[in-house]
Amino acid sequence: MMRMSDAGLLATAHFEGLVLAPYRDSGGVLTWGIGHTAAAGGIDPVKVDLAMPSDEGRALRRILAQFRADLAICETRVNRAVTVALEQHAFDALVDFDFNTGGIYRAMLTRAINARADNPSRHFLGWLKPPEIRDRREAEIAMFDHADYGTAPIPVYRTDGKGGLGPVLRRMERDALMAQLRVRSE
């Protein structure tokens, strides 16, 4: 069974951003941490205080533990849905896609990969709702086709304490987030 690489999970963290308190995403879904919603199971964002945490370190530890659990679910789904061998970067792109859409089982992308169709990555662009997700789909194509994971730091957002997403509080370098993730997994 394949698992997402460090580079892949950092790319997903970058795409999602890290939000220390719950907020309503563009679809109105209460979201917390690194793209976590109640639908994923685990910690229900409704039960997390809307106020910015006073102990950021503790909040970050909870967020990263939930992120690992959410990724494990997506890794399992991708391993089950894709029936052909994948290179690590292609697997990582598919886990990111499923993390964002939950659509790995019903995507034309998956059917094209399993059928060994030419240029299956073009089917990432079949999932462009909301429209502002296009940059992420294009980055997933770059990851799938060329092992291009990007290098941008992870944005850490503030919230307004009422479920609204605020401005970027700071940017966390990828190696700093990776160090935190390693502490959680040891």
From TrEMBL:
GO terms for molecular function: lysozyme activity. The keyword Hydrolase applies. Keywords: Antimicrobial, Bacteriolytic enzyme, Glycosidase, Host cytoplasm, Hydrolase. It catalyses: Hydrolysis of (1->4)-beta-linkages between N-acetylmuramic acid and N-acetyl-D-glucosamine residues in a peptidoglycan and between N-acetyl-D-glucosamine residues in chitodextrins. It comes from the Bacteria. InterPro entries: Bacteriophage_GH24 (IPR051018), Endolysin_autolysin (IPR033907), Glyco_hydro_24 (IPR002196), Lysozyme-like_dom_sf (IPR023346), Lysozyme_dom_sf (IPR023347). Its EC number is 3.2.1.17. One of its GO terms (biological process) is defense response to bacterium. Belongs to the glycosyl hydrolase 24 family. This is Lysozyme. It comes from Allgaiera indica.
